[in-house]
Design goal:
Two copies of one chain form a homodimer.
Chain A (H helix, E strand, L loop, with lengths): L5 H39 L4 H12 L2 H17 L4
Chain lengths: ~80, ~80
């Protein structure tokens, strides 16, 4: 059997890096599917998935940031007559 | 201790669903960070991360779809003088 050349080593290193990315991408897709399943389950028992996504987003924010955003949102709503 | 009311049960169910989503979102973010790390590692040993992302995308496609996309891309490139 021939010794691997430098080019082969490099190809192999690239292949391994690409395959690691691919495995991680698969994992990320699996988790995204799990998230979709939780929302589907929530919907099945009567919750509104769109509102839940908003709640997840709001809970991720710092309270000060959230309050500021809500204040600005109220200002814009008033400006546009969304009473 | 008071019995939980129906409203409390419902609130608790909503909270658990939201918390499951939040854990999964954390997990997804962790995986995305891992992917970024692999690209950083690849870059550190001399690979071009942008090209690697293209390779990952191309490897995900069915060969027929990939060849079709490449043919159309060539057509558009010719049309726009990207020899």
């Amino acid at each position: 059997m021939a010794e691997p050349t430098d080019a082969n080593d490099t190809d192999q290193r690239l292949r391994l890096l690409i395959e690691r990315v691919e495995r991680l991408e698969e994992e990320k897709k699996g988790t995204a599917d799990d998230i979709r399943d939780v929302y589907a389950e929530a919907k099945a028992v009567g919750y509104d998935a769109k509102i839940m996504r908003q709640i997840v987003r709001l809970r991720k924010m710092k309270p000060d940031d959230r309050r500021e955003m809500e204040a600005i949102l109220d200002t814009y709503k008033s400006a546009l007559g969304l009473g």
